[in-house]
Amino acid sequence: MIKVMIFIDGSWLYRSTPALGARFGKPEFRIDYGKLPRVLAARVAEATGLGPKDVDVVRTTLFASKPVNYNPRDEELVAKQMSFFNMLAEDYHYETELYDINFRGSRVKPESSREEPFRPTEKCVDVALASAMLYYAAIPNAYDIALAVVGDRDYIPALRTIRRLGRRVAIATVEENCAREYKDPVDRLGVRDFDTILLGDLLDELELVYEPQWQTCESELHEGDPLVLDSYRPRKGEKFFCDACRRKFREQKDAALEEAGLLDNAPAAIVDEQPKPGNGNGCHTGAVKHLVEGKAYGFIAGENGHDYFFHATDLESPLVWNDMRVGMRLDFEVKKEPTVDRAGAAGNIRIHGSL
Ligand SMILES: [Zn+2]
Known about the structure:
Number of domains: 3
Strand content: 15-25%
Strand order of the largest sheet: 3-2-1-4-5-6
Bound molecules: zinc ion
CATH class of the largest domain: Alpha Beta
C-alpha cells in the first residue's frame, strides 16, 4: 500500500478554474472537490503501476485565504466561500488551512468589470503549504508520495527538498496557469517523480454536475408553493431557502445597510491593518443599543466602546429577531471593523455566554 498526501493551493486552483472552463468549452465549469482526491489518486496509481486499491489517500489539505474586514455588501459572497470550506471539511473530510486576507473595507469582488478590484496581498498560503509538505516528509511513514496541486514556481525548492528526504513527488497542475518547470518534459530541475498530471485532461471526471431537486423552502417570507425545483444544496443543519427568498433577504439587508450609512467603501487609510482582537479569538461581547423595528436591523454597543451594525440574518440559530431586546447581552464576531466615525458590522450573534 502506498500512502499519498494531497496538498492543494486552493487560491491558485480557484483562480485557474476559468482556464479549465475555457478548455472544456463551459465557462461555468466547476471542479467537484468531492471527486478530486480520488481522480488524482487513480492517476498516481497508474503512474506507479499499482492498482487503484493499492494507493491510499491518507490526507487531503486545502490551503487558502479567507477575507476579513471587507465591504458589508460582500457578506453573502464571503458566507458562500466559508460554506464551501466547511463543506470540504464536513462532507469530504479535507483538512483546510485558511489565512486571513485583509480587504480594508473594500469589495471582495467589484460590482462591475469597469471597477478596479482591490487586490490585497495574500499572505502565508504558499509557505504554509510548503511547510506542511516538508513537515510530513520528515515524519517516518506519514506519506510515500506528496501530490502537490499547485502552479506557482515558489514551491520548487520545497518539492526538491522533499525528494532529497527520500519521498516521492507528484504534481498536478493547470497547463494554462503554471510555472514552466512543471510542464518541462525533461524535468531539468528534478521537482517530480512522475509525469505531471494535467487537470485539463481530466475535466470529464472532475466536472461538478448539479442536479436540480424538489425541495421545500423554509422561509417565512416565501410566496406561493414552497416546493420548488432548485439545484442549491443546503449544508448539514442549514435551512433551505429558494432562489427568490435568497434574493429578497439580500435586498432587505442591502437596504438596511444603506439606511445605516454603512455601504461606502471605507478609505483604506483609516482602517487598522490588523483587526483588533476582542477576547483573543475574534469574539466580542456587547449589548443591544438600538433596534429598528420593521426593518429588522439594529446596533450593538461593544464592550470595547465601538458600535456594530447587525441585521436579523446575522443572528445565529436559535436566536431570532423577535427575541431581541435593548440591553440584551450578546457575543458576536466582527465582520467589519469600526472606523473613527462609523460603526462596524457584527455577525454570528448569539446570547452572551452560550456556545
Ligand atoms: Zn422561498
